[in-house]
Amino acid sequence: MINLFSPYAIKGLELKNRVVMPPMCQYSVSDKDGIATDWHYTHYVSRAVGGTGLIIVEMTDIEPDGRITDYDLGLWSDEQIPALRRIVDASHSHGAKVGIQIGHAGRKAEDAEVPVAPSAIPFDSKSKTPRELTTPEVKEMVGKFRSAVARAVKAGFDTIEIHGAHGYLIHQFHSPLTNKRQDEYGQDLTLFGCEVIAAAKAEMPEDMPLILRISAQEYVDGGYGIEESIAFAQKYREAGVDIFHISAGGEGPIAAAGRPGTHAAYQVPLAKAIKDALDVPVIAVGRLDDPILANAVVGNEEAELVAVGRGMLRNPYWTLEAAAKLNKETQIPKQYAFGF
Ligand SMILES: Cc1cc2nc3c(=O)[nH]c(=O)nc-3n(C[C@H](O)[C@H](O)[C@H](O)COP(=O)(O)O)c2cc1C
């Protein structure tokens, strides 16, 4: 029987268990230079000590104006590689595998003087109105994703997650609410995302899997739902995605018709729907921090992997405690054996 502590392998990525730390921005860069600090090192490496199978480093941006805030991580320069390499190497020494989420905030880049987006539509009445990217600029943006992925590979990451969720740039391209373009990137709403995926794959070793995070449902009135997201995920799958990480929302303030995540496991039905429709591995996320529930999601084959976000902010040793609670074997650091 498969459970939360069964190993998982896809292509060359071998995980000791099914527990994922999802990307969570720390807004903790000190000099607005996009370089990881000691905070990032301690934060990620302690989750590796805590037994996590796969750690996905927070949204890391492909250019300065792609950051949500000036305190986000970046990979637009080679100077940003060594501090990430240090985190990856130390996490490896504690048995974790490490991925990184590569993204661009588009119209949600709060500190950009003039944010860029597929179309000049602001996020809400308080946000800056973004400038519409020209067609050549969209093509350059694909190149920037490619260069950032190349740097991530150089830093030693085991997998790459492209951020296509939460109302950021790729999501803005594939949502009819935010993409009103007249060029080819408006005729085919998934063209930008597909080109980014192909560019990323071109820089990744053959046996390294690519993860794409998507919002499988928009929460605003008139937003897309699961039928539409299955259709666009199919295109992304054909472009080269190996695993989908299924989240939701982020495109605007939650509307009356929306369903924010107030209940445990609220996004699991979306993950299962994508998994079944595409016959593809998925990561489920969203209020899965009760180990019994997380274990059931894997055991009931609703998702291959389970991500625990806020639960791991509270407790870096979430995975070790989950193993104890579920009575599963896991390697406890010898220094901490008495604690268990
Ligand atoms: C502090 C914080 C920062 C986050 N930053 C990111 C991010 O960088 N990229 C992303 O895709 N999601 C981000 N998220 C969303 C989480 O990855 C996760 O999907 C969400 O917290 C739901 O999972 P949970 O209920 O286990 O916390 C963030 C969440 C939190 C709490």
Structural account:
This protein is α/β, with parallel strands linked by helices. 34% of the residues lie in helices and 16% in strands. It is built from 11 helices and 13 strands. The chain has helices spanning 38-49, 81-93, 135-154, 169-174, 184-187, 191-203, 226-239, 268-278, 291-299, 310-314, 318-326, and strands at 8-10, 13-15, 19-21, 54-61, 73-74, 97-103, 116-117, 131-132, 159-164, 210-215, 243-247, 282-285, 305-307. An 8-stranded parallel barrel has the order 3-4-6-9-10-11-12-13, surrounded by 7 helices. It has a two-stranded antiparallel ribbon with strand order 1-2. Strands 7-8 form a two-stranded parallel ribbon. Helix 1 (38-49) packs parallel to helix 2. The longest helix has 20 residues, at 135-154. The chain is globular. The two termini are 25 Å apart. The mean pLDDT is 97. Residues 22-25, 58-59, 101, 163, 165-166, 213, 247, 285-289, 308-311 line the site of flavin mononucleotide. Flavin mononucleotide binds next to strand 4 and helix 10.
Bound molecules: flavin mononucleotide
CA radius of gyration is: 19 Å
Structure classification = alpha/beta
Strand content: 15-25%
Straight-line N-to-C gap:
25 Å
The quaternary state of the protein chains shown equals single chain
Record the SSE blueprint.
Blueprint: E1 8-10, E2 13-15, E3 19-21, H1 38-49, E4 54-61, E5 73-74, H2 81-93, E6 97-103, E7 116-117, E8 131-132, H3 135-154, E9 159-164, H4 169-174, H5 184-187, H6 191-203, E10 210-215, H7 226-239, E11 243-247, H8 268-278, E12 282-285, H9 291-299, E13 305-307, H10 310-314, H11 318-326
Helix pairs in contact: 1-2, 3-6, 7-8
The site of flavin mononucleotide (FMN) has 21 residues, from strand 4 and helix 10.
